Amino acid sequence: MTECLTKTNKKVLTKGNYAIANAAVIAGCECYFGYPITPQSEIGEFMSGKMQELKRAYVSAESELAAINMVIGACSTGAKAMTSSSSCAVSLMQEALSYAASDELPVVLVSVMRGGPGLGNIYPSQGDYNQATVGGGNGDYKLIVLAPATVQECVDLTYKAFYLAHKYKNPTILLADGLLGQMMEPVEFTDYPYPEVDNSSWALSGAKGRPARVIRSYAPSADDQCEFLKRLHAKYKLIEENETQWEEFNTEDADIVLVSFGSPARNTKSAMKQCRKLGLKVGFLRPVTLYPFPSKRIAELAQTAKKIISVEINMGQMIRDIKLAVNGKVPVELLNRPVGNPPSVEEIVERIKKESEEL
User: Fold this and answer.
1) Neighbours of 151 (CB within 10 A)
2) Angle at which helices 41-53 and 16-26 cross, to 10°
């Protein structure tokens, strides 16, 4: 599939990976550099046709290391550039992501998670939550992380990833999983909904009648590095204040609050609705931004809820951030499956019934 579905303004049936790729084209992606790995290879497939058709830059790189560094080079000129990959391959990009954060470059990375650790398998997983939100590169840095739960959100949050990356000059990850990448749903592609960000004050465009510019991550002294890090983290605080996003339902009187992100949130939300029909006071919160994480709102819910349950496809990673937010005020428990299909609606409902009896 290489036909661009740009700006259909009507619902069309498409796969998550194609939805992401097409949204990137609409968002104005000028350069795509990638290396194929399941379960996100369709993104590169789509781009290989459409980017060349539109006379934009496309390179099938020799490795993931090459791809992410090509993105860094393109972003240093102010271009909208992206790569996409998965799990073990994103591991190879960690050093470059640290450099991009330090260089304050608007890198966009689409990470479609698969099972791990190591090579793992191609089944859906959320085992890269820590990889995205904490990172494997060196130093004190943060990446903006957006987590879609539907194919429509794959579109909407791809738009937003490009906008936030350029607004804050900060690497941004769209974190999906193999289920979202491969499933098909009706979606609507609209015009890019965000204003274009002026990059003329910093982009490396050649010193034409102005002083030369340098983008570098090296600070020659400890004092210089301290000042730089203070400024960088002031930016992160601004991101936390302005860009934290989540959705929640029925939390006002909830005894049990379910927290889930990405594709498992679909079953979790359905389970919450079934429990409400059974008369159980259950609420639901879904982080849309994993960084910034909705810690403040979860802390508020811990004042009224009696228990919080994290539903994940991993061995328990987001639960750490939930516990930090709750700060011991209420118990936080895990309902998980390490890899593959998320916990079913029936499993979640049965767990809630059991927990409700113990409250």
Assistant:
1) 23
2) 30
Query: How many other β-carbons are positioned within 10 Å of the β-carbon of residue 141?
Result: 20
pLDDT tens, residue by residue, 302-312? 999 999 999 99
d(CA 222, CA 195): 37
Helices (H), 175-317: 178-182, 222-243, 264-277, 295-301
Q: Report the C-alpha gap between 355 and 359 in whole angstroms.
A: 6
What's the CA gap between 285 and 269, in Å, rounded?
A: 9
Contact 101, 134 (CB under 8 A): no
Beta strands in 166-206 (DSSP E): 172-177, 184-188
What are the structural domains of the chain? 11-195+216-243 (3.40.50.970), 247-358 (3.40.50.920)
Cis amide bond preceding 148, omega within 30? no
Q: Rounded to whole angstroms, how far apart are CA atoms 100 and 119? A: 25
pTM greater than 0.90 (yes/no): yes
**At which residue do the structure tokens 């990375």 appear?**
109
